[in-house]
Recover the amino acids of this structure.
C-alpha cells in the first residue's frame, strides 16, 4: 500500500513523534523539499554563512516575549487600593479597572494574579515565622 523506502533511522524518528506510516507518506513531499533546501543551504553555508538561512529555525524555537514594563506609581497605587478591597475581581470589574488606570485588561488580570501569589507567599512566610516564634518562646 505504501512505499517503504524510508530508512530505519527516519522511521524511528517519526515513531518518537508518534507519526504512523500513513502520516509519514502524506508529509513525504514536504520533507523532500525541506531536505533539498537544507542540503543546498548547508553547501552554501560552508562557503559563506548567511544570516537569513537560520531565520526559519530560530523562529520555530525562539519564544517571543513581551518587554518587562514598570507601572507608574499612580497606577500601582490604584491597583493596590482595589486589591485591598477585592482580591478576586470579576471579568467585568477587571475591564472597569483597566479603563480607569488606562491599561489592557490582560495586564490588569496578570497584575492581580501576581499580587495574589505574592500575598499568598508572604502570608505563608509570616505564619511560619509566627509559629517559630511561638515555639522558641519569643515575642
Amino acid at each position: 500500500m505504501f512505499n517503504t523506502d524510508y530508512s530505519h533511522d527516519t522511521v524511528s524518528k517519526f515513531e518518537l513523534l508518534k507519526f504512523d506510516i500513513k502520516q509519514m507518506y502524506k508529509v513525504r513531499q514536504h520533507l523532500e523539499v525541506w531536505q533539498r533546501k537544507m542540503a543546498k543551504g548547508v553547501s552554501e553555508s560552508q562557503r559563506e554563512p548567511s544570516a537569513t538561512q537560520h531565520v526559519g529555525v530560530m523562529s520555530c524555537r525562539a519564544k517571543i516575549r513581551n518587554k518587562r514594563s514598570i507601572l507608574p506609581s499612580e497606577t500601582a497605587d490604584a491597583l493596590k487600593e482595589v486589591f485591598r478591597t477585592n482580591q478576586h475581581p470579576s471579568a467585568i470589574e477587571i475591564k472597569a479597572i483597566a479603563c480607569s488606570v488606562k491599561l489592557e485588561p490582560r495586564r490588569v488580570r496578570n497584575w492581580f494574579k501576581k499580587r495574589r501569589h505574592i500575598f499568598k507567599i508572604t502570608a505563608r512566610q509570616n505564619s511560619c515565622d509566627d509559629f517559630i516564634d511561638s515555639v522558641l518562646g519569643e515575642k
Observations:
- The first helix runs from residue 8 to 16.
- Helices lie at 8-16, 21-47, 55-61, 73-85, 91-101, 105-136.
- Confidence is low (pLDDT under 50) at residues 48-59.
- The chain has six helices and no strands.
